[in-house]
Amino acid sequence: MSINTPRKKARLPVNGDRPNGKTLASQDLQRQREQLPIAKGRDALVDEIRRNDVTILLGETGSGKTTQIPQYIIDSGIAGGGVVAVTQPRRVAATSLAARVAAEQDVQLGDLVGYSVRFDEVASPSTRIKYLSDGMLVRELLSDPILSRYSVIIVDEAHERTLRTDFLVANLKAILAKRNGGGGTHTVTNGQSDAKGKGKKRAVENPLKVIIMSATLDAEKFSRFFNNAKVLYVKGRQHPVQTFHTSVSQIDYVDAALRTFFQIHIDKGPGDVLIFLPGQEDIESLEKSIQSYTRRLPENCLNVLVYPMFAALPPAQQAKIFSSTPSGSRKCILATNIAETSITIPGIRYVIDTGKCKEKRYLSRDTGGGFDTLLTQDITKSSAMQRAGRAGREGPGFCFRLYTEDAFNAMAASAEPEIRRCSLTQSVLELKCLDYDLETVEFMDMPESEAIFSALKTLFLLGALDRTKALTHLGRSMAALPLEPYLARIVLASKAHACTAPVLDIVSILSASSKLFVDVSEARDAAAEARRKFRHPSGDHLTLRNALKAYEDLLEGGKDDMDVDDARDGMEVVQSSNHGQGQDGKKGSKASKAARREWCRANFLNEKTLMEAMKIRTQLRGNCERLGLDWRTEPAGASGEEAVLRCFVAGLQQQAAFLQPDGTYKQVVGQSIVKIHPGSTLGDRKAPAIIYDELIYTSQIYARGVSSVPRSFFSGMTSSTYGTT
Ligand code: CDP
Ligand code: MG
């Protein structure tokens, strides 16, 4: 894991910034801190945390839990010489909160306060408060199974019940038993370990404190899991929110949100608007529509500033959301459920709730899946209430629900924990690495045995487990890569096939947060035409690589080489030019940057993805070196390309379909007929077998990210290995 030495002052501006980007004096931030609802309870909270090994802390969103508690812990000396970890289900939240807290402490980001998310870490040996994605802390477990460098671990947003959070919570219970006394096994029986641990604290060398924080009223369950741990409540400062429902259901929620926004904008007084949408595509499409209608507004209307907020948004863009609204303007934030509880944006008075979110769901082999897919779904009552609450933080507000009251009443109370609905492949591999007995490990909610069986089977097919379900050497190497097991398998296969360089290129692009090929429905033909020059006859995987190589040729042709900061600046420029708020005055060779941007635009490529992929690749190269893979290995000619495809088959053997005599493709694992996505470079070409990155479920099942491969590549792994279970 790389530690980036911080070079600059916290680069994300925070709430209270002047429009010119200069941070207000830190006294101002101190004043804001003191006014947070949590500040009044500070001493009592610190006392309780000091007294208990495990504390459950419940408090309304925006009360100050995430930003303040870690600072209280450091200031009061509870952390001793250790580090305080704060986990977040979303990486955007981790980076943005770390920046805020660094500013509150008036230190550089990466010094006292840092963050660590996949493929990006800003921390140093002096970091004492570290915001991590929950997945990153799980990864740290693999190299340090008792998380010894942390003296306090705060599991934040625990109500979200992500798979990683639940996994962590299960481990923390076992770690507490180890570090605070009370038996040395992984399987802790209820009630005993903690009771023993408490009496023996003197003898403990490196005790651990765990704080579970949540925004909703599900504390009891956490408390019970941790042997009736103490539950503390922080009162928020919630103002009344007037909620409206539509009289009929809205089929096109993006259009309904657009109309509602302008009704508010024209009829209602000042105050910022927060619109909840399920994902990036809807956000970007609504952003465009709002921008275009805004230009036609009468002169006397407030100016509209639109800000998107979703997971893949680069840091410089995120920061703008927190800046205060200039007078004569109205901010309109288009967000996913990230703004529901993990991030509080000041100034919101109006909320528009589409009632939709994207949810990860495991599609079993029978329904044609065998892996997780993101599906747009109705939200839960609990989410709907959180969303409405966002309007009443600073004064009375309004929430416009784009669904009927009956629809609200029909919503599920709260979401099912991910552990009950997501693929467990990666978690089971991690449990194996940590030497757990799958039969006895204790989770808050137990996964279904069928899901565990399915994960074991996948891991066996990938070669991570042997027939006795024991971890193989290959499995251990797979877990050492910061990739999902199937992608890790592809990378590791490249050693035997001597083609690590191209494989890493492609895997890096697939690991980036946005797709490389921009999908523009209005210009599909032009995009296809432009893409033709990168086209590889085998399909999309090698086509991705061709596009990356073409971009790199351009980079080498230009004068400036790119470092990470450069890449970030680049992203910012690309983004803001889309928003019509271009920023000038960036350092570096402007012409060549502009030329690259133009080249990407003309070729319908997402430059942000290319830059992110190069950054990811740098990290993966480091991982490969540690695993004894030479990432420079570049095979030549057609046999080299065949080698690359063989690696992909090794990882995607369960994401494959064979051509049937009637011309359709039938899954190798599972029974469904899949079609090649119209956006694929393969087009209508019939290939004896295809492998794919994902399935899209519409009226049909489409395979996206497709390559054609000879059927012989599957020999030795078909029929007998694949049952139909
Ligand atoms: O965790 P909880 O929801 O209780 O609150 P928090 O995240 O600690 O936020 C406390 C305050 O810090 C809120 O008023 C936020 O608006 C503010 N904040 C901010 O201004 N900028 C950030 N990047 C993060 C938080
Ligand atoms: Mg929080």
Automatic annotation (TrEMBL):
Its EC number is 3.6.4.13. Pfam families: HA2_C (PF21010), Helicase_C (PF00271), OB_NTP_bind (PF07717), WHD_HA2 (PF04408). GO terms for cellular component: nucleolus; ribonucleoprotein complex. It is an enzyme of class 3 (hydrolase). It comes from Coniophora puteana (strain RWD-64-598). The keyword ATP-binding applies. This is RNA helicase. Residues 46-235 form the Helicase ATP-binding domain. It comes from the Eukaryota. Keywords: ATP-binding, Helicase, Hydrolase, Nucleotide-binding.
